[in-house]
Structures are given as structure tokens and as C-alpha cells.
Design a protein that fits this description.
352 residues, alpha/beta, 2-enoyl-CoA Hydratase, Chain A, domain 1, six-stranded mixed beta sheet, 16 helices, globular, binds 3,5,7,3',4'-pentahydroxyflavone
């Protein structure tokens, strides 16, 4: 059998998807997301499949995101479509999951970031462990939290949503449970056992079985810092959020969260940061995840045509110098007109 980075098998009435690209932390290639959408559309119609499990072949990562090296190549290829085929395929995989119509259980060990966060968040049961690291880090690469993050981060307290979307702040399972970004916490060591039971159970038993494996999370790190987060990200302009963080950091030099926020505002893509604030505002009344992903598709088409996208991926994954040169290079220089242009959806192809 030819090598594949994603595997599908049916056990009893369960469909099992295994992401198996461990050397790239399961970053989703075009082939993986195309195969995923294709298999889900078949299993959706197949009455012998009652529920679906998403898991990784490696405990290090559920999924680190998209195949951004490939997306970058497409973006700079000179082809007028640019990165469009990649993002269409990735988002159609999320939509296939949203429209699957049967319970989906995501077993989220290790890294769950970017596009991996999308796969997890569009599942009904989001199982996390003590190793889970969840983030939407796209402001580091001149992109923005996509795959429907305007809804799943948007349901968090707005200050927390801004923290996560603008700075890429990484949270653990206890935080995710509190935020509604996880539905269960189980020990990493029992995931194999849980998976086996879910593969052989009746669909009506799924909830009860997960519950049997659940343990206490311990304390949420975010909740102890909520006052600080609300103070910085509660309201006002993005510049004022940056300035409040910098002011507080002067008096609290040992606060790690503050230090990370200040650094994020100094190093991450200014347009990406401001775009996410606007995105939360624009999607405030939105409840349809497919509409959110259709908006993400159009925003991604605009954003991947900008030099910041290629430059961000260069700095973060290719050269790894962590020194991207952004244009514009300050929050002040990102104008409302620039954001309007990114949100201008006229003349863009539809996702499907
Ligand atoms: C922001 C991102 C991603 C990222 C780093 C960021 C992302 C992504 C990867 C990634 C990680 C490991 C790999 C790989 C890609 O890194 O989406 O190919 O082996 O997939 O700062 O959004």
C-alpha cells in the first residue's frame, strides 16, 4: 500500500481517522484534507457508521495546523489563484466535519493549533489531556485565526478571545474546559484505552464512556489572571491594549503572561493583530460556523496575497530567524482603510 499521511478505517460502527504525519506534527497537507473531506462525505451517507473518532499516530501532536510551507509556495508562485486551492481544500474539510451529522470525538493529545484547533473545535466531544497545548498562532505568520475561530474564540470572554487571537497565547486543557474549548479532560496515558472502548461501543454510550475516563483538571492558569486580561483586552483600541500591557509590565517585570503579551505586540504581524479585533466585531452576531468559514476563506484570499504572509512563514518555519519584517510595521500604521480592503468580499470566488 502506498504511504499516506492520513488513515481511515472502520471498526464495528465507528469510523476512525488517524493523522499520521508525525515529522511535521501532523500539519495538514492538501492530500490529507482532500482525503478527509472525501472519506467523511462517504461515511456521512453510510448507515453502518454511527460515530467518528479523530486521533493522531503520535502523542506529541494532534495537529499543528496547515501545511504553511506549501501554502506559501502557492502564494508566491505567480499563479493568479495563489494559495486559494490550499485554503479551499482545508476549509472544505472543516465543513465536511461540521456537516457530518453524527457524533465526532477528537482525542487531542499534545499540540492542537491553527487548523488542528479547527478540527478539534468542530467536533462534538473535544477530549484533552495534561499534554494538550491549544493555540491559534496565525498572527505570527501574517495570517489570522481562521477555520471558524471567530466563533469558537468569539464564544470565550471577549478579552480572552482577543488575548488568544492577537497574541497566539497557548492554553492547556484546564483553561480549555473553562472556556468551552474542551468537553472532557482525561489522562494522556488512558487515551489508548478510551479510543479502544469508543471504537467498539454503541453510539449512545459515547458520552458515558468519556465520562468514565474523566479526571479533575486542577486549576486553570488563565482564571488566576482574568483581571489582568480583562484590564488589558477589555475594550478600546488595539493600540491602547498594547500600551496598557507595556505599562503594567514595567511594574510587574516578573509576570510571564504580561511579558509574553508585550513581546507578541512587538513581534507579531500588526495587520493580523488588528484584523482579528475587527473580525470579532464583525462576527459578533454570527452563529453559523459555515458562514464564519466562508468569511475566513475570503479573508485568507486577501491576506495570503499580502507580502506579510510569505514573510511570516519565512521567519517562523523556513529561516527560523523569528525576525519578520512586516509591512506596515506598527499598529499605528495599519489604517481602517487597509482593514476595509481585507474585508471587501466583492469579486472573490465562493468557497463551494
Ligand atoms: C503559526 C502557524 C503555524 C505554525 C507556526 C506559527 C501553523 C503550522 C505550523 C507548522 C508546525 C510544524 C510543522 C509544519 C507547520 O507552524 O499553522 O509544517 O512541521 O502548521 O507561528 O499558524
Amino acid at each position: 500500500m502506498p504511504h499516506s499521511d492520513i488513515h481511515f478505517e472502520q471498526t464495528a460502527t465507528a469510523g476512525l481517522v488517524t493523522l499520521d504525519r508525525p515529522d511535521a506534527l501532523n500539519a495538514l497537507t492538501m492530500d490529507m484534507v482532500l482525503a478527509f473531506a472525501d472519506q467523511l462525505s462517504r461515511w456521512a451517507r453510510d448507515e453502518s457508521v454511527t460515530h467518528l473518532l479523530l486521533c493522531s499516530s503520535s502523542p506529541r501532536a494532534f495537529c499543528a495546523g496547515g501545511d504553511i510551507k506549501y501554502a506559501r509556495q502557492l502564494a508566491i508562485s505567480g499563479d493568479p489563484a495563489g494559495a486559494e486551492p490550499y485554503f479551499r481544500a482545508e476549509y472544505l474539510a472543516d465543513i465536511a466535519l461540521i456537516e457530518f451529522g453524527k457524533p465526532v470525538i477528537a482525542l487531542c493529545d499534545g499540540i492542537v493549533m491553527g487548523g488542528g484547533g479547527g478540527l478539534a473545535q468542530h467536533s462534538q466531544h473535544i477530549v484533552m489531556t495534561e499534554t494538550t497545548r491549544f493555540a491559534m498562532p496565525e498572527s505570527a505568520i501574517g495570517l489570522f485565526p481562521d477555520v471558524g475561530a471567530s466563533l469558537f474564540l468569539g464564544r470565550c470572554p471577549k478579552s480572552v478571545a482577543r488575548l488568544m487571537g492577537m497574541t497566539g497565547h497557548v492554553v492547556g486543557a484546564a483553561d480549555c474546559l473553562l472556556l468551552g474549548l474542551a468537553t472532557a479532560y482525561v489522562p494522556s496515558a488512558s487515551l489508548i484505552d478510551l479510543k479502544e472502548k469508543l471504537l467498539h461501543c454503541h453510539v449512545d454510550q459515547v458520552y458515558k464512556i468519556i465520562k468514565q475516563f474523566q479526571i479533575d483538571t486542577g486549576q486553570s492558569l488563565l482564571s488566576s489572571q482574568r483581571q489582568l486580561i480583562d484590564h488589558i483586552f477589555g475594550d478600546g483600541s488595539v493600540e491602547s491594549m498594547r500600551d496598557r500591557a507595556a505599562g503594567l509590565a514595567e511594574n510587574m517585570p516578573h509576570n510571564k503572561l504580561l511579558g509574553a503579551i508585550v513581546k507578541a505586540f512587538e513581534t507579531r504581524c500588526p495587520l493580523s493583530i488588528k484584523l482579528f479585533d475587527r473580525l470579532l466585531f464583525e462576527t459578533n452576531d454570527l452563529t453559523d460556523p459555515i458562514a464564519a468559514i466562508e468569511l475566513d476563506f475570503h479573508l485568507a484570499l486577501r491576506m495570503t496575497k499580502r507580502a506579510d504572509f510569505a514573510e511570516g512563514i519565512r521567519a517562523v518555519v523556513l529561516d527560523k530567524d523569528q525576525a519578520p519584517q512586516w509591512t506596515p510595521n506598527s499598529l499605528e500604521a495599519v489604517t481602517e482603510t487597509m482593514l476595509d480592503a481585507v474585508f471587501d468580499r466583492s469579486g472573490l470566488p465562493s468557497l463551494r
